[in-house]
Write a structure and sequence with these properties.
Elements (H helix, E strand, L loop, with lengths): L7 H19 L9 H14 L10 H20 L29 H10 L6 H10 L3 H6 L5 E2 L4 E4 L2 E5 L2 E5 L7 E4 L2 H21 L20 H15 L8 H12 L4 H8 L4 H7 L4 H21 L1
Antiparallel strand pairs: 1-2, 2-5, 3-4
Amino acid sequence: MMRSQVKPSTWDSYARNLRLHVLPHLGDLPLGQITPMRLNRLYADLLGSGKRNGLGGLSAKTTRYIANTIHKVLADAVDAEVLAANPAGRAKAPRPSRVAPIDLHFWTPEQLRRFLEFTQGHRLAGAWRLAATTGMRRGEVLGLRWADLDLEAARLAVRHTVISVAYEIRESTPKNQHARVIDLDPETVSQLRAHHARQQAERAGLGPAFRDGDLVFPRPDGTPIHPHIFSQTFERLVARSGLPRIRLHDLRHTCATIALRAGIPTKVISERLGHASPGFTLRQYAHVIPGMQREAAHQIADLVDRAESA
């Protein structure tokens, strides 16, 4: 498994899972003694008591992710002719349920409006609005550059992300490796213009100490904001606002849910969020569909009834 073939965050995830969940069980064994039976026993142990805090087992999804990582490592051993065959290919990794429960949290349009009003004046107010109205991921907001923005045309291009790997800030590319273009509403454009003016004032005040990386939402000295600090700042503001507690990532869910309820085509929502397909968007937000179905039923009936009485 070549480090250069995956993103740094993916490599860090592989390494962390191997270190925490695999090496304690299999690390002392010669490769030739890693059998399908041993792997099956490992997967059973992870499902039953794999959490590091001792409070139960890992989910089937996480255990299968670890199993896939083991498969990749052993496949490399086969390619290097250290192993004759990959034992992971005959082991039985757990399959996550096809209908896994989805526990998404989001705000109503009214709650979102109250939060945006509450944070007016905060130096990151434009970041919260941008995340809420576009559904951009945390790293995409932090990686956005002024060169990626066309405020005259009211649109931006998502080309960069800022991520944390072993708590170190790294620059990366969007999740699906492809840039995407997102149109902006007039109020968001207005707030971005105001934010740019404040940033220029900060820059002038610091002079040569300002480190210009062209970031739209950096720290006051121009350096990237750590993603964890960004999330913690949001969570503290939510706590002070008195609104229902949600995570920063839940602004993305809020954006998608509001868009679906507004009747915006799923394809458009999928493109704005950077999902792999509209089908993924529908599966991710299936919790919204029942209410939309009821609304559709009433709207169809109203049209039919009015046509009959005309």
